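Input (structure):
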């Protein structure tokens, strides 16, 4: 019996070494910009940190507070203006961070089910390649409360 337990432990140890380290997405400073109560959309910002040893790919975003949630970036056009473009995915390399901030990459919550007021927190989930989700609360903040 002890010999069988040793073999089992040895096989389990080898298999554990063969499993790749999982990527881990964490959040710093999440917030949503407060909007008027009749607004159909609002923007969200956060720093996304990959604390794992593998790249993390975000394939989508959702929240019960909005009928449609997307990752966007801003790009310059030929006439010098800027426009929003949909990001279908966002990859964050191992040990790296990506900041979603005003004027750059950001979240757009559209078709709001109810406009959250300043001081409320909205749960937002980032859908990752491989089927996992990473979720966190985004407090709603008035523009005057931020550095932007």
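Output (sequence):
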């Amino acid at each position: 019996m002890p010999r069988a337990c040793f073999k089992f432990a040895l096989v389990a140890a080898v298999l554990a070494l063969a499993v790749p380290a999982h990527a881990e997405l964490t959040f710093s400073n999440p917030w949503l910009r407060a909007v008027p109560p009749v607004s159909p959309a609002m923007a969200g910002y956060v720093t996304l940190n990959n604390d794992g040893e593998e790249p993390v790919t975000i394939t989508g975003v959702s929240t019960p507070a909005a009928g449609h949630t997307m990752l966007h970036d801003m790009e310059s056009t030929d006439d010098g203006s800027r426009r929003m473009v949909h990001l279908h995915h966002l990859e964050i390399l191992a040990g790296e961070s990506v900041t979603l901030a005003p004027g750059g990459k950001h979240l757009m919550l559209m078709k709001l089910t109810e406009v959250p007021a300043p001081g409320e927190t909205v749960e937002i989930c980032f859908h990752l390649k491989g089927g996992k989700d990473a979720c966190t609360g985004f407090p709603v903040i008035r523009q005057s409360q931020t550095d932007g």
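Notes: Residues 21-143 form a domain with the Immunoglobulin-like fold (CATH 2.60.40.1890). Residues 4-21 have pLDDT under 50 and may be disordered.
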